[in-house]
J domain-containing protein
Amino acid sequence: MEVRVMAKTTVLYSVVILCVLLAGALSSTAEFDPYTILGITRSANQAEIKKAYKRLAKEWHPDKNKKPEAEDMFIRITESYEILSSEEKRANYDRYRQMDSAQPYDRGPHAFRRFHDGFYFDESFFSFPFGGKGTRDAADGRHVLHFSQYVNDITPDSFRKPYLIKITSDWCFSCVHVDPVWREAVQELEPLGVGIGVVDVSYERRLANHLGAHRTPSILGVVNGKVTFFHYAVAKEHLVQFVEDLLPQRLVEKVTDRNDRDFLNSWHQVNKPHVLLFDQVPAVPLLYKLTAFAYKDYVQFGYVDQGLSETADLLRRYNINTYAPTMLVFKEDVVKPADIIQSKGMKKQIIDEFISNNKFLLAPRLVNQKVFDELCPVKQFHRRRKYCVLLITGEEDAFVPGNEAFLSLAAGNTREVVRFTYVYQRQQPPLCAALLVGRDGAPPQVVILERRSEAGKVVFKPVPGGWNGSEEDKHRLLEELERLQKDPSILTHDATLPELNNEFASMFLIRWIHTAYDYLSEIVDDLLHNNWREMMPLLSLIFSALFILFGTVVIQAFRSPKCSGAPRSRLPKKNFVEVTELTDITYTSNLVKLRPGHINVVLVLTDATKNVLLSKFAKEVYSFTGSLTLHFSFLNAAKHGEWMSALLEHAQDAMRIDAEEEEGGAGAGRKADYTGYVLALNGHKKYLCLFKPVYTGDDTDGKPEEDAAGATRPRSASRDEHQHRRVAARSRSTILQVHHKLDRLGLWMERLMEGTLPRYYVPAWPGLDKITVNK
């Protein structure tokens, strides 16, 4: 019992001690943050780190600063610079918050992972050469990625540099063959500025799924947040070419004696400095392409091949040494370079520092909010105040002298806290309106401002007298700057500025075309390299659409034709209706030998009603004349009345319907009137569809006659007269006016085309002997 108590006490003490040690380590790590001490962001480059260190070291040096905490602060600044100036120490701190590079990287949070029966096993004990954690290269441990790190750091940073990522896992047999080539490629690409990452599927399954990697080993690249897989043989040359292909096209323009002036003179349109690199190799070096990609938002890059005869004039003009690469930067002056650098071993750190010091023109234009934020940053501390001298001007020729005078004044500026900029009032009307509101003055005007918050709050002071570029205007502006240096409170006006318009934003159509092109390229790439898992949703959608389309076509093609036997009506091709008479001459061609699927629509009329009914018939069927399977004819009932009767005798259902109407008329000795009937005759299948005039309630012309007759006759009329009127009412076709007989023919034609009309089959069409003239 005592042994158990002692064991429990020992375990408890061990846990407490471990927690204390962990808390102390975490607290010490949390207190020391080199980025915060130097006052820089985590994306700062070496030039910015060095600049911040020099400024703070000068400020907190114990010989100059007599504060008690100066010595301690100076030590912390030095330690921070030692960590961040070394890429290896910086990467180690960013990933594991370790400040001692002597500690092995793979002794991080994954050093002891295997747990079995209450014991932790160090994986280095099992040193199998299968790519397990224990045998992982130190570089791989340094480049291990996690999901949150990829989303928060890698994806945004991929808009500045490409990333090459390897997907691996424990017990990956194929990884053994890939690792040596991978290490060689990393040693060559990482110093050039390519980001490197390693994803272990065994522990980062979520990140692997997010990247779309479902096999190990896999290699992929990330540029501008887009993932592209490597599908070629794993060789160092192929990996280098893969990274180069990831970069956007036209990052670097080839410059010769023919286009150098156009290239340098475009600084005003693009609002960027121009950099020329002179080298002897014909292809643009990858280091230069990577630099152009990193600074594509700030600088325009050009490349001059010294081995071409078309570049000889450029070499003489700028006195270029052909034995070492040379880099020139041009700003507003296209004749004389603003800065120059020449070195045999052109390293990335040297180029970054050179470009960082020349990112902007002497007087750049405010073209978007990003440029405004960098040129005129928000005040953080009293000693870090930044002032912007803003010229509000126009693009017309009348403003050119004043703009050039402002530029000459900016070229002579030596104050680090003052930045000269200008803005076009027509391009940025909200900004100019906020700074000129309530003041009598049109552009050009000069305003000195200081930003106070990210929300757009500024304090400013307009320079009185406007701006014409005269010596008096320059002297007045310089006096205001001298006063500002002594007394910042002269900025008496305040305003809240709106967000600037992006003058270089591409049109919606162009952005849509680029997006569609990228999407199609990705689809083609997946199809060519059998990346079926990612393609399954798209392929399923395509095949579903094709199946629906094909099924619809098949159903329409093999659908059992109903009364119409014809496809849907097309638009009419003529502005008239062609109607032929059905006679003994046209009888065979228009009915008996009518082609399969064709319908002949026949109107029954008389000589007295011919003109009226044909006109009405043409109006009702005109919209259906576009169909190639419909034909239109008319039958003269006075000539061929017996054929009509014979036809209805063969169609039993039709005769029964017709007999109902003849009951009333037969008693009065009247013969059936077929005027206004319409027959749809299918000669091949021997059936017909019947249209009979139907009373629509619009026949009001006949009522006055009846009313008038009723008004003149006494109420004691005989029952025979009333019976006669009832019989006449039952046979409405005899009292309908002629122009009302075809009122509903259009609806009947629609049902005919839909195939919903009843069919009356006949065993055979009546012979020609039935088509006789009534005597």
